[in-house]
Structure formats: structure tokens, C-alpha cells
Amino acid sequence: MAYRRGKGRGRGISGLAGLLVLTLLASPAAAAEAGGSPGIEQRIQRAIDAVYPALVQIYVLSLRHGGGRGRKFESTGSGVIISEEGYVITNHHVAGKATSIRCVLSTREEVEAELVGTDALADIAVIKLDLSSRDPASGPLPIARFGSSEALAVGEPVLAMGCPLAISQSVTRGVVSNKDMMIPKRMSAPLRLDGENVGSLVKWIGHDAGIFPGNSGGPLVNLQGEIVGINEIGLGLGGAIPSELAQPVSRELIERGRVRRSWVGAGFQPLLKNGTAAAVDQGALVSGVLPGSPSDRAGLRPGDILLSIDGEPVRVKFEEEMPGLIRRLLSKPVGAPMQVNVRRGEEELSLSITPELRDDARGREAEAREWGVTLRRLTRLESKELHRPGPEGVLVSSIRPGGAADKAVPRLRPGDVIVEIDGKAVEGVGAFNRLTGEICRDQRAPVPVVVAFDRRSERLLTLVEVGLRRPQRPPAEARKAWLPVATQVLSRKLAKALDLPGKKGVRVTQVYPGSSAEAAGFKVGDILTHVDSQVIEASEPQDAEVFKTMIRAYRVGSQAEFTVIRSGETSPVSAELVAMPTPEGELPVYEDLLFEFKARDISYLDRVVNRWSDEESGALVSQVDAGGWAAVAGLKARDLIKAVDHQEVTGVQDLEARLEAAGDRRPPNIPLFVKRGIYTLFLELQPNWSQGNGAAPLDGVEP
Asked: What residues are annotated to the active site?
């Protein structure tokens, strides 16, 4: 899954980059080959042999939140095996939000994997292959080794390996075009992942080896057969995260599951070209200091020029030098004072700043289905941006239209912070989940609760009906009389075309098989003008209900005589009026809140339309929510579910029992046998049982 950019103004830049690719392909490496550089083809082949066997194609089922719910989506990316234990490095934007991962090795083996750790700021993730599923005869895993991205030279040949466009492992060839590639400021926005500005830390290795969607996470390889980068973006030129950053991040993810970084709470920028800082050849300009941060407490001020950190000089005159400074600051030990020298006007000062543990830019998002919202915890930075004294409360990210929060008065909005539920403080996500569980326990209908929330500087109250409302079968109505035929209005134009000018009535379009209408001798094409000598006043399309209303006025089981025009001849036809079949709206319905679909029993008209016999059984799918587990499995509306986990389903009662039994067992997948049109097929539901409805926990940090 290559991370593509280039809309609007950026598209022009992408086109320019495309021209640059052609130029670079014709320079150093291509020129060397034209001159017959000895052994380059052999070096390329050796590099391929060293890394290609370790390539991994990654199939990911992930969560994307919005509109008050979490939606599952499938994507593919690339990775490379870096240890005998089965650790694979890839991108955060490939696997960082995975609920399930399946990998295909270069040997075509399919292996399940799990997410070990992920880092949005560096866009690096590590997954681990489940080696227990491999055939012992398969032998040890092939492993790729890291090399030095610093040792690369502009013009040096490189190979981009991965699985573009979801096809199997492949290799493209090019040269290093730029070792300090950054996203131009004139493009619409920086590359942000989960609120993190990736470009603040990463200087990409620009290269012209072809990469496409699906290449993301694959290695950039030098001719020594070493990983020198992890491919991430395409701007016409490809961009790879340098191995000097990717390798230590992956190592820490393997060891800790996350990356610990320092935070000083100050912003920096290159020295100004004019003004006070222009005369200074060393340092970086302090652009801002967050109140209450370590830098603020140490006395750092906007406008200061940072000269050195722990005795090491700082020099940032160009934007390309900023990521180096950021990496130095982020890598300082948490809680250990560092000495910084700054220039303030004509004075040089020495300050001691004690870094704190850096929080994520944004908390992980998850769905609170009972509320109809998605939520996340407040991070340190978000709390400050919202001018809040601390991270207490939970932040509303999005609202589901028609959900509980949307129906509240006043309704909740994205950006609101929930601080109390029925007078009980919501310190964080742990308290929110706990209170929601208490409210909804043993309840079969939503429960009204008073919710206090902050909106900017206001504290508001609202009433939210929290909980899930199970669909209820409407009360059965008394069965009305019915003639088992389908009809259309005999409009004025149609009557004239059939040489029946001025006639009113209906035309029979279908006679239901095995019915009283068929027994009475009705035929498709019959024109009905009277019922028991009463004119059928239907001559316009909007009169479609007139005939049905006339029939409903009779008692079930009574006889009615119809005046029928057939082939120009008029004759009476008598038929028994039977009870109308149970309408779809009154049939038993099953709604599965986990897999997000609805199904109902088969109706009489379903059998007629689909030409199903009376022996045909199953539960007919009426709705599949986009982004739900059922949709991801490929289930579609109008599918007839005939079996769950190889057990027969005769109706929705069986369907509910089979799925509840599967929920108790929690198997990795649940096979469905369905009928779709004239075909049958098997589908597999693959829920993430450890996460309930498939959403990630709101956050791993408890208040």
C-alpha cells in the first residue's frame, strides 16, 4: 500500500518529479551500464538473492474510524523479514491499525501474523509471523540485513523490492536521486499519520526505482544486498525511510512494543535569513514554547537561538537540517537533565531542561456503539490545544447520524469532551468504559443518562439515551383478502395502444403459481375492468393501489367475479380471494450487532420472484453495513444464508442460535454457506474476538 500524494497543486509537482525520473535513469547508473561497467549485473543478482527470499506480502484487515463508527477495510502492503524469530518490518500506515494480518512469503507459504508494535511518527511497524503454522520441513526463514543509508551516494544504483498492486514479490531498479528529500512546503499539507508530522523526523531517500500502491513497507536495497531504507511514499520519485532511523525504531518496537521518546515542549525552525538571527552562523531559532512544558519551566523563550545541546553544537540554517535536530532532542534520556546554551539578544545563557516522556499526538480511536460515537483519550498536546488544565475526560471524534449522541438535545459534536455521566466523573477512557458497562448491563433498551461535556469554554448538559435498541417485530395485522396476481394500471395511453380506448382497469403481469388465481384460469395479459360489476377506477400510474384496495374490502375466502378482456373477448372469471401472505415487515428479523448485518425469514414473494420451491430454506440477508465484518467477508444483501459453521439454517431463529454458539467458542473464522442467485458459495467471517466489536480499545493508558 504505497502512500501516494499529489492532488491539487501537488499534482504538478508530481508531474515534474516524473520528468526528473527520466533524467536520472539516463545518468550515472545508466551511463555506467552503457559503458559496460564490469560485474554490475552480477552484483544486482547477488543483491536480489540476498533480500528477495525475505520479502513478505502483507494482507491487512484494519479499522478506519469516522461517522461515529469503526469501519473495517482490507489493504495490502509489503514487508521484509529481519530476524529468525519471524519479525517483519513494514510501515505504520500498512499494519499499524491491523485487527488481523495474513502474510504470503516468497515461497508462497501463507502465514498468520500479529502486530508487535507501531510508531506513527517514523511510519514504522513490526509484525511477527506465526511460525507454528509452518511446515517443519520448510526450513529456516530467510533474513535480510540492514546496511548504512548514510553511506549511500547520489547516483548509486538501488533496488526497490515489494509487492506492488497486490501482485506477488517484485523488484524494480533505479538510482538514489536525493538523500535529503522532504515534502515541499508549497504542497497542500505535510504528511501526517494519526496526528504525527512524519516529515518533522524523516528525511526520505529519494530514488527513481518504480514503486506503486502496495510497495509501502518494502525494502530499498543497495548492491551489497542490504536494507538501506523502507519505501513509504511516491511523489513521482519514490521516498524511503533511511535505515539509520528504521532499524533502531524496529529494534525498540521488538523490545518494548512502542518507542519511548523525550519531550521538551518547544518548537524550532531554521535561522531567519534577515533580522537578529541572520548574523548568527550557528544554532536554531526557538519558534515557540508550550506553557507548563519542560522548556517553559527551564526558562527557554521564543526568539532564543539554541546554540548547543550537552556541549554539541547546533546548526540549522536550512529546512533539511531540522529533522536531525528533532531526532537529537527526541533521543535524549527521559528524566535526565540536559544542558542547553542559548543566545538571547546579546546574552548567552545556559539552561537545564529535564525532558519528559513524549505522549502520542493523538490517542487511539475506537467506537462506542452504545453512544453512536467514536472517541479517544485526550493526549497532553490535545489538552493544551483545547486550553484544558489536564487530560481528564474523553474526546468525541465523530458522530453517527441518527445515533444516541446525535439525537441528544443538545446533540454532541466532534471536539466535545465528555467529563461526567450521571454525575460521575469521567477521568479517562477507563472510567468511560466502566460507566457505559454499568449503564447497559442487563438492559434491553437504551437508558437515558445526563451527560456533562465541555464545548470550548462552556460546560453543557444533555440527555443521551445510551444503549442498543434491538429490532422488534411489529404486531401482526389481520390478514386481508388478496387475489394472487401482480398487475399494472391500464393507463389511457396503454388502453389506446391495445385498442381499448376509454377502458379503465388493470393488466395482469404475473399469476402466482399454485394459487387460486391460477386455478381460476387467469392469464398474463388479461385486462380486468370490473370486480362484481364495480368499475376498477384505474387509468393513471398513481392509481396502482385502487385494485388492491377493492380486493381488501372482501372477506378472506369469499368469491369475486371479475370482468376479463382477453384477446378482444370479454368474459367473467370467478376466483376465490385468499389471505394476503405475511408482508416482509412482519417477518422475524435478526440483527447481528457484531458482524453488522440484518437477515429475515423468506417471504412468499421471495419464493415467487426467485422461483424457490417450498422446500428452499435459510435466512435472507436484508442489509449489510459497509465496513462491517460481514461486508469484509463478502456477504451481500439478498444472499440466502443456508448454513453457519456447516450447520443448517432454516430461518433467522437458527441463524441467531448458530452465531451465538460460534461467539461462545470464538473460532478464528466462521464459515457461511450462502446461495446467491443460481450459485452457491462459501464465505468466512473473521472477527477479532479479543476486541469485542472489532474496534481497538480506546487506549492502553488508564487514568
From this structure: 93, 123, 216
* 396-to-48, 416, 555, 575 alpha-carbon distances in Å: 48, 5, 57, 62
Contact 635, 619 (CB under 8 A): no
Q: Are residues 242 and 372 in the same domain?
A: no
Q: What sign does the dihedral 10-11-16-20 (CA atoms) show? A: positive
Please tell me the distance from the alpha carbon of residue 268 to that of residue 644, in angstroms, as a whole number.
Answer: 59
* Residue 421 in grid coordinates: 455521566
Judging by beta carbons within 10 Å of its beta carbon (0-12, 13-18, 19+), is residue 399 exposed, middle or buried? Answer: buried
* Cα 260-56-5 angle, rounded to 5 deg: 70
- In terms of domains, do 47 and 159 share one? yes
Distances (CA, A) of 329 to 27, 272, 314: 38, 21, 11
Low-confidence ranges of the chain (pLDDT < 50): 1-38, 277, 692-703
Cβ atoms of 575 and 523 within 8 Å: the answer is no
Q: How far apart are CA 125 and CA 230, in angstroms?
A: 11
| Cβ atoms of 158 and 218 closer than 8 Å | no
Strand ranges for 532-582 from DSSP E: 534-535, 559-566, 569-576, 578-579
Residue 639: the pLDDT is: 97
Show the cell assigned to 547.
Answer: 385494485
- Read off the CATH number of the domain in which 538 is found: 2.30.42.10
**What's the total number of domains in the chain?**
5
Rg (the chain; Cα; Å): 34
Nearest to 123 by CA among 89, 92, 79: 92
Q: Residue 395's closest CA among 425, 426, 440, 359?
A: 426
According to the model, what pLDDT value does residue 276 have?
Answer: 53
Which structural domain, as residue segments, surrounds residue 285? 262-357
Q: Is residue 567 part of a domain?
A: yes
Rounded CA separation 110/100 (Å):
13
386, with CB counted inside 10 A (0-12, 13-18, 19+), is middle
| Cell numbers standing for residue 695 | 474496534
CA distance 270 to 74: 41
- Cα–Cα distances (Å) from 494 to 62, 137, 485, 486, in that order, read 55, 75, 19, 17
211-245 pLDDT per residue, tens: 999 999 999 999 999 999 999 998 889 999 999 99
Element at 405 (helix H, strand E):
helix 404-407
Which amino acid makes up residue 92? H
Cis-peptide, bond into residue 136, ω within 30° of zero: no
Distance CA 215, CA 229 (A): 12
pLDDT at 197: 92
